[in-house]
Design brief:
Layout lengths: L1 H28 L2 E9 L3 E2 L4 E12 L7 E9 L5 E10 L5 E10 L5 E13 L8 E6 L3 E5 L12 H27 L1
Parallel strand pairs: 2-9
Antiparallel strand pairs: 1-3, 3-6, 4-5, 4-7, 7-8, 7-9
């Protein structure tokens, strides 16, 4: 009987511990809130070109003036999932309402085509990178950059000779059908 009380007590303690930990992470996540993310990337670039982007981030934090806040912006290649550029900008100690611009520098791929990127934004406390120091996160909409000159889709103009060939094929098909009809009527 004592063993069952110990087991029930351990389960109750574990349950209370899990609830308290989940509530503390919700409170930490609610300390900051990103209200808008506006990335500015070029729409077209050449292969292997160094390009600059800027991302404007606005939000607010519950700030008592003791913690130091910053915003980190990661540019992520959507195909590979690799972070290709990461940079942060300080908000400072007072982060109750903030708007900061974070610049990123990245080299475009070596191929022509459309390059798809994600812009991931983080609000971080005291220079941390995750855990309880990560206060909010936003994955903005996909950004695309045309690398190289777009290749036009070839056009196939209908020329006069093409029209003659089509007319000839239609006429010969009609003549063959008529011959088959006459042959079947005779039989």
């Amino acid at each position: 009987m004592n063993l069952s009380r110990i087991v029930y007590g351990a389960l109750a303690f574990s349950f209370i511990l899990i609830i308290s930990l989940s509530q503390s992470s919700v409170v930490a996540a609610a300390r900051c809130q990103i209200s808008s993310v506006s990335p500015s990337l070029p729409t077209q670039a050449m292969p292997n070109q160094q390009i600059e982007s800027s991302t404007s981030v606005a939000g607010s934090c519950v700030s008592d003036g003791e913690d130091y806040y910053s915003v980190r912006v990661d540019l992520v290649d959507s195909f590979s999932g690799a972070i290709i550029s990461s940079n942060s900008t300080a908000i400072g100690y007072n982060a109750e309402n903030f708007t900061v611009t974070v610049g990123n520098s990245v080299t475009t791929p070596s191929y022509n085509g459309t390059w798809h990127l994600y812009v991931n934004v983080y609000v971080i406390r005291a220079g941390g990178t995750g855990g309880s120091n990560l206060l909010d996160y936003r994955n903005s909409t996909n950004a695309t950059i045309q690398i190289g000159v777009p290749t036009p889709i070839p056009e196939f103009p209908i020329t006069q000779s093409f029209s003659v060939v089509v007319a000839f094929c239609v006429a010969s098909t009609a003549i063959q059908r008529r011959r088959k009809q006459k042959a079947s009527v005779r039989d």
